[in-house]
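We treat protein structure as text, and this decision shapes the records that our systems exchange. Such a record has a labelled line for the sequence and another for the backbone structure tokens. The record that follows is passed on verbatim for readers who wish to inspect the format:
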Amino acid sequence: MRVGGAAFVQSELIALQILSSSSGGARSETSAGSSRAASASDGFAASGASGGASALLTYSASGALPDGGNAIAAIKAMAKSSLFQNAAQGHADDQVRALVRDGKLAELPALDEAQYASLSKSEQNIYGVVRTLQGLYDAMPKTIEQALSDHVKIVLDSYPESIARMKDGLASGTLPASDGWNDVIANYEAELAAAREGRMQIHAVTDSSTVTATEEFSASGGEFGWSGRGVSVQADIPALQKAYGTKNVLPGDSPYFGTYVITW
């Protein structure tokens, strides 16, 4: 993304896999950057309320639900509300996106096989849609400062090992120098140095001719698990390089504050 013409960057998070077709058990989830606290609130028994905001009282809370039993009660309450009628069919809509984006729903934990099987098909769909969206939104930076700090952390944590592996590949011949690996390593080292020295900067971008984003936040799945698609970013790299006076530009987007570019 640092050189060349217009770039298309897709951020796709496989938010969770509920059931494993091979083992029948619950699969693990990768959900980075969760901003929700680990505490939970009471009041998740299904109340019989149907439709509208009144039903929200039965499954909204800050923090994460501690176990599958509470989660099942929350899901059954959701199924009684018209707010989740599309989620019950396996589709995310703007209402559910807004609830998840704004932290209005308690974070659903993983269910084991028996707990998942105890849900009706529509309840399973609600669980899959909501939990997938929670994984997607949790991975998004909530402030522009967090977007920079998250990227710096990724560079500091992962680049030294990546650089070492690439150098080993060059030395062993598995990564031919003729393929440009020396330049790749040099770019990684330059970015790592910028992160270590505090030279990375982030800038909000309002010019749609340079950076635009499509915030999809969709969920799909079923018998073999659920996956989600988050943000797609399109950027005019040469225009960004010219605007910020550096070849090192990394565009991005968050639904919480919009498009941005990291430079160094």
Notes: Strands lie at 6-11, 201-204, 211-222, 225-236, 249-254, 258-263. The chain has a mean pLDDT of 81. The chain has seven helices and six strands.
